[in-house]
Write a structure and sequence with these properties.
Elements (H helix, E strand, L loop, with lengths): L27 E8 L2 E3 L2 E4 L4 E8 L5 E6 L7 E3 L4 E2 L2 E3 L5 E8 L5 E8 L14 E2 L9 E8 L2 E4 L3 E2 L2 E9 L6 E8 L5 E10 L4 E8 L2 E6 L19 E6 L1
Parallel strand pairs: 1-4, 3-10, 11-18, 12-15, 14-20
Antiparallel strand pairs: 1-2, 4-7, 4-8, 5-6, 5-9, 9-10, 12-13, 15-18, 16-17, 16-19, 19-20
Length: 246
């Protein structure tokens, strides 16, 4: 199992839901603790429209990441080992269950549910059309087509030239949601996330363009139990593969 130690720009504002706005430093303080076996608490009761201040403490031996899933538009935040991050947000004004994934890519994962009002079932947002992760395609020297199945990641080439590479991920599953992460494999075996195409529905696709330097890279799906209706950890089921950029 690889350790996540990539450097990702940490956003200072956490946004949940389309109606959510930044709350700044004020609001009710909610503590989340990360340990080697996952994050606690698993659920948090909130009030629609309430301002919160998350105090996310990493008490584990690894770097963790938190991000919103299934309609909770939470930008990725990395919490290094032994550190604390305190993003603030305002709960959307409508009742709902908003999910946050707290995890080490390829390792332990926890789904934290924020329950607003009288909601009893999670809100789910599935793409109903092919997803584009950029407003327009950047000029690219290469296109890598990646097929996502249950539970494999299969690129149409295992070696590509360095430069701008357009990734086109196609989910051929009939009922499962998948995603595509592109991670750089460092010399010490740790992983650095460079980009992702999230929530690709069955028989749908998505794309992104990344400028990659020579080296080894991993293509992976990190859907975990409780996310997008999944009952299994896709990465642990073998949904990853490596490519070489020359």
């Amino acid at each position: 199992m690889k350790t996540w130690s990539g450097v990702i720009a940490v956003a200072g504002v956490l946004v949940l839901g389309a109606a959510c706005t930044s709350s700044g430093a004020g609001g009710r303080e909610v503590r989340i603790t990360q340990k080697d076996d996952g994050c606690t608490p698993a659920s948090i009761s909130v009030t629609p429209g309430e301002k919160l201040k998350l105090v996310v403490k990493n008490s584990s031996s690894k770097d963790f990441e938190v991000e919103g899933i299934e309609g909770a538009q939470l930008q990725e935040v990395v919490i290094p080992e032994g550190r604390t991050r305190t993003p603030g947000f305002t709960v959307p004004s409508r009742d709902g269950v908003y999910k946050i994934k707290c995890y080490v890519p390829g390792g332990v994962s926890t789904i934290i549910e924020l329950t607003a009002g009288g909601a009893t079932t999670p809100q789910s947002k599935q793409p109903d059309a092919p997803t584009e992760n950029s407003a327009s395609f950047a000029p690219s020297d290469a296109t890598l087509n990646v097929t996502l199945a249950d539970y494999t990641v299969t690129p149409d080439a295992t070696s590509v030239k360095a430069g701008a590479i357009r990734f086109i991920a196609t989910n051929v599953s009939t009922d499962a949601v998948h995603e595509l992460y592109v991670l750089k494999v460092k010399d010490n075996g740790s992983l650095e996330s460079l980009g992702e195409i999230e929530s690709i529905g069955p028989k749908q696709n998505g794309s992104m363009v990344l400028d990659l330097s020579p080296g080894k890279y991993r293509l992976a799906c990190f859907i975990v139990p409780g996310e997008a209706g999944s009952k299994v950890d896709h990465y642990q089921k073998g949904m990853h593969t490596d490519i070489t950029v020359e």
